Task: inverse folding
């Protein structure tokens, strides 16, 4: 319910600009918002639990003893060589104090007991916690877009699989675009239609929406909109058409 089949959203801020977005994000209904909020809470809890277990496993190693051992407190003084406490908020000392606080907290002690019980061997616990923490950073949906600017060019954008990396974007100037076509290829036993851009001076074709590969109706709608925004209003439409199939052989059966 948190993902749907690829659907198209068209936005036209001006007659010379069009943005085509294909996404698997469902419409923002009340049920979807509630499920998304619940999933966010579960992600945070799972991520924090994984970090606590990893910290507990690390605290039992001999390398953690110098950092977790109590040290005598000193009254801070403010001098030119000793800046005030707020200036040291993001210092390494504050980081180790935070580790000691987590180690002494109730969740920290609980995680320490779980690790100390050896119910789960460390060679299994540590990779499992790392995988669980990474899983909380994965996106549940994919969004790809195509921005068309008449007289300037087109820009493709595709979100990454996790929140750790930014979206992949590419801009192609109008003078480099030879044509925008729809091609077809076999994917298993299924015929798939996809939008391509032929760029001058490049052997490889630029596939639009490469991760989602939406259905034929969406591809045709985007194809007509791109050509209409780029060329047809000026009467300078490029060659090619809907049934263009004689493209580079490496795309036949490769998408």
Result:
């Amino acid at each position: 319910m948190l993902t749907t089949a690829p659907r198209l959203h068209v936005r036209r801020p001006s007659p010379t600009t069009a943005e085509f977005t294909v996404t698997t994000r469902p419409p923002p209904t009340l049920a979807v918002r509630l499920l998304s909020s619940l999933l966010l809470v579960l992600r945070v809890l799972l991520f924090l639990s994984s970090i606590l277990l990893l910290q507990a496993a690390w605290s039992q190693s001999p390398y953690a003893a110098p950092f977790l051992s109590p040290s005598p407190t000193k009254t801070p003084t403010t001098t030119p060589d000793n800046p005030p406490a707020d200036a040291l908020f993001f210092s390494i000392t504050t980081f180790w104090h935070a580790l000691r606080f987590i180690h002494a907290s109730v969740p920290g002690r609980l995680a320490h007991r779980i690790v100390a019980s050896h119910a789960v061997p460390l060679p299994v616990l540590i990779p499992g916690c790392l995988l669980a923490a990474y899983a909380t950073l994965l996106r549940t949906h994919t969004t790809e877009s195509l921005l068309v600017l008449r007289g300037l060019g087109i820009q493709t954008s595709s979100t990454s699989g996790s929140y750790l990396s930014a979206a992949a974007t590419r801009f192609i100037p109008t003078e480099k675009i030879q044509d925008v076509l729809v091609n077809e290829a076999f994917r298993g036993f299924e015929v798939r239609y996809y939008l391509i851009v032929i760029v001058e001076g490049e052997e490889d074709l630029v596939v639009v929406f490469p991760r989602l590969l939406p259905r034929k109706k969406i591809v045709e709608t985007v194809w007509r909109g791109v050509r209409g925004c780029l060329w047809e209003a000026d009467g300078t439409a490029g060659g090619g058409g809907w049934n263009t199939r004689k493209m580079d052989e490496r795309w036949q059966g490769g998408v």
